[in-house]
Structure formats: structure tokens, C-alpha cells
TrEMBL record:
Organism field: Bdellovibrio bacteriovorus
CDD domains named among the record's database cross-references: crotonase-like
Annotated signal peptide: none
Taxonomy, superkingdom: Bacteria
Residue ranges of coiled coil: none
Residue stretches of biased makeup (Basic and acidic residues): 248-259
One Pfam family recorded for the sequence: ECH_1
Family: Belongs to the enoyl-CoA hydratase/isomerase family.
GO MF annotation list: catalytic activity
UniProt protein name: Enoyl-CoA hydratase
InterPro entries: ClpP/crotonase-like_dom_sf, Enoyl-CoA_hydra/iso, Enoyl-CoA_hydra_C, Enoyl-CoA_Hydratase/Isomerase
Region (Disordered): 234-259
């Protein structure tokens, strides 16, 4: 891959945005690589979690300026197709049934907030600047809004999206975009602590829980009743569920913690 670095260690995949000279701004090629990478990671039964981070001085500056210059000459149909692919990038991250942890530093502007919103948990270092910068350019944070609003506190995040104000990690945390704020340079240490509970949990239980949480919002009350009852019944009867319950009753470690 040209714009991503993918490494693996101890059942965790590390996806690093790799355009440091452009502050990891994404272009169509990077977007395609992110989609393919997360769709491929979704199929991996040996993984327990994914980490999304950026190379260099910033997490991500959003859309690449040269790409945005090209958009000026796009027709409506071209813009629609382009935006649909952008949505699919955020969707591939959000719908990956592996837990995705974002590690954010430096800056996260524009579409980078969509990447953050697609993550399940986000660690941000002190000094990071955040901004929904789109309205300053006369456009809108439209594609990312579907992901931001399903995660964030609407009362906190709406003014930020409407004003394009720059905000700090603590405001991002209050808005629900960031889970934990750590000192400058302490992100990787905090990440290892954050990963531990995911590595201790039943791998399939985590995946099925995330899948359920993603699906619930589209179901009516009756469908939620049926879906939730079905998932717990399946988990109780599954080999992993049986092993976990036996291990608890026998006061021993479940088998997945020894692999």
C-alpha cells in the first residue's frame, strides 16, 4: 500500500495513515486503501482489535487540497459518486466488527472527525486541535455528519459543526468524540492499557456485541426485542459462551486468554 502502513502485534492490527508530508490528508487513493484494509481486517478471525493512527506531526488534516481543487470542476454526478465513496470509507471503519481504537495527536480537521467518529474508542493527546472546518470553505460536514451524530452529544457538537471553531481535546471529550485525554507524547502508553480489556474479552462476543449495537438504531422496538433475545440465546449456546460460563463457574481463565 502507498498511503497506509499496516502492522500486527499480539492479535492487534495497527493501521497508520502515511502521508506525513501532507499531514495525512486523504485523497481518493488513500480512501480506497482504507476501505479495502478494513474490509479485509473484518474477515480476520485471529484479530481482536484495530488501532487507527497517523504518521508524523498530525493525525489527519481531512481532505487533500489538490483533491479539493479537482472537485471545483466536478459535475454534480461526479461529486455524488465521490462523496458516496467517502461515506463508504467511514462505513467500513464503523461497521468493522472488530473494536477500532483511534489514537489522535497534533490535529484532526474536517473529514478526520469522521474517522474519529467511526472509531469505538478514541485517545487524544493534549495539544491536539480539532475543527469541523467545512463551513469555512463554503461546504458542509455532510458525509461525516451521519457518523458524528450517532456518536456525539448533539448539544455540544452542533455549534462546533456550524461555526467551524477550533477546539481542544477536552471539548472533544465533552462532546463524546474522544474517550480519553492524555498528556503530549503519552498516547502509545495509554493505548496499551486501553487494549487490554479487549484482549481479555471473548473475541466472538465482542464482534457480536458491536454488530448488535450497530444494528439496533435501525430497528423498531419489536425488532429490538427479537434481535437482542436472539443474540444472547446464540451466545449462551455458542462454544465460546459455554467456555466462558464454565470458566467463570470453575474459577479459571477461559481458553481464549491463553492464545
Amino acid at each position: 500500500m502507498k498511503f497506509l502502513i499496516l502492522t500486527e502485534m499480539d492479535h492487534v492490527a495497527y493501521v497508520k495513515l502515511h502521508r506525513p508530508e501532507m499531514r495525512n490528508a486523504f485523497n481518493p487513493e488513500m480512501i480506497s486503501e482504507i476501505i479495502k484494509t478494513f474490509l479485509d481486517l473484518e474477515k480476520r478471525q485471529d484479530l481482536r482489535a484495530v488501532v487507527l493512527q497517523g504518521e508524523g506531526k498530525a493525525f489527519c488534516a481531512g481532505g487533500d487540497l489538490n483533491w479539493m481543487k479537482e472537485m471545483v470542476n466536478f459535475s454534480f454526478e461526479q461529486n455524488l459518486q465521490d462523496s458516496t465513496v467517502l461515506f463508504e470509507m467511514f462505513e467500513a471503519i464503523a461497521h468493522c466488527t472488530l473494536p477500532v481504537i483511534g489514537l489522535v495527536h497534533g490535529a484532526a480537521f474536517g473529514g478526520a472527525l469522521g474517522l474519529i467518529a467511526a472509531c469505538d474508542e478514541v485517545i487524544a493527546e493534549e495539544g491536539t486541535q480539532f475543527c469541523f472546518s467545512e463551513v469555512k470553505l463554503g461546504i458542509a460536514p455532510a458525509v461525516i455528519s451521519a457518523f458524528v451524530m450517532r456518536k456525539a452529544n448533539a448539544g455540544k457538537v452542533r455549534p462546533l459543526m456550524l461555526s467551524a471553531s477550533v477546539f481542544n481535546p477536552h471539548i472533544a471529550q465533552q462532546a463524546g468524540l474522544v474517550t480519553e485525554v492524555v498528556g503530549h507524547g503519552e498516547g502509545h502508553t495509554a493505548l496499551q492499557k486501553t487494549l487490554q480489556p479487549y484482549l481479555q474479552a471473548g473475541p466472538q462476543a465482542v464482534r457480536e456485541t458491536k454488530k448488535l449495537l450497530n444494528n439496533l438504531e435501525s430497528l423498531n422496538w419489536k425488532q429490538q426485542k427479537e434481535a437482542t433475545a436472539k443474540v444472547i440465546a446464540e451466545r449462551r449456546a455458542s462454544p465460546e459462551g459455554q467456555e466462558g460460563l464454565r470458566a467463570f463457574l470453575e474459577k479459571r481463565e477461559p481458553s481464549w486468554r491463553s492464545t
